Amino acid sequence: MSQTSLTAFIAMMVFVSTIASGQERRDQRRQDRQRQRLDQGTANSQLNEAERRRLERGQQRVERAQTRAEQDGVVDANEAQRLEQLQDRQSERIHRQRHDGQTGSSSGQTGQ
Predict the structure, then answer these.
(1) What is the C-alpha radius of gyration for the chain, rounded to an integer number of angstroms?
(2) Dihedral angle sign, alpha carbons of residues 15, 6, 77, 73
(3) pLDDT in 10s for each residue of the chain, 112 residues
(4) Does residue 47 sit in helix, strand or coil?
């Protein structure tokens, strides 16, 4: 491999790894924001305990899917799209539960 080819290859690998790590940071920030929304919903009684537990399980499913996608070191376009869809659905669930009019209660009743 010539010096120019080697340099180009190294530059390309650095670029690809930078994009991948940027995507991972973006995904992690989104996960963190969704967890904050759950915490806020619990703190201001927008979520009751049953809703919170269900939403936590959904968040864990998203995180497991992300871990599986990252196992081989590369999150391909299909995996990234699937993760985005899972996060979108979880975000919608959080929104719906926080705005459904049910309030948290200390007795653990769901009000359903």
Answers:
(1) 20
(2) negative
(3) 677 777 777 777 766 655 555 666 788 898 899 999 999 999 999 999 999 999 999 999 999 999 998 898 888 889 999 999 999 999 999 999 998 888 776 544 444 4
(4) coil
